[in-house]
Design brief:
Helix 1 packs across helix 2. 31% of the residues lie in helices and 12% in strands. Strand 1, helix 2 and strand 2 form a beta-alpha-beta unit. The C terminus is likely disordered. The protein contains three helices and three strands. The protein has one domain. It has a three-stranded parallel β-sheet with strand order 1-2-3, with no helix packed on it. With 107 residues, the protein is α/β, with parallel strands linked by helices. The radius of gyration is 14 Å and the shape is globular.
């Protein structure tokens, strides 16, 4: 996705961050959306979500605390299997290190 489109998509998040009190703990939840635990779309890889979160973190306000980034490791009731190509973009994520990458595990 071109950078200007990423910036356009990130504008509402950046606007919200500017309105929060300093030192607010924030979790970034990137999701495919679901209705009754059924995904709206199916991603073949996490590359676009990693690009999105990386672009956001490039300008993350220093007065706000990012606690975690949630990427969709499963799609509703459909568990994601061990498909290395799907997870490979996580190696490029700026969210790694002190911030955990997480996903809600459902029974």
């Amino acid at each position: 996705m071109p950078g200007f489109l990423l910036d356009l998509a990130l504008r509402p998040i950046r606007d919200l961050l500017a309105k929060l009190r300093p030192r607010t703990s924030i979790g970034l939840h990137l999701c495919l959306g679901d209705f009754h635990r059924e995904s709206i779309v199916r991603a073949k890889t996490l590359d676009k979500m990693v690009a999105f979160s990386n672009r956001l973190l490039e300008t993350w306000p220093s007065e706000q605390r990012l606690v975690y980034v949630h990427y969709p490791f499963a799609e509703g009731v459909v568990p994601r299997g061990p498909i290395p190509a799907y997870y490979r973009p996580l190696h490029e994520s700026s969210a790694t290190g002190e911030r955990p990458l997480c996903s809600r595990l459902r029974p």
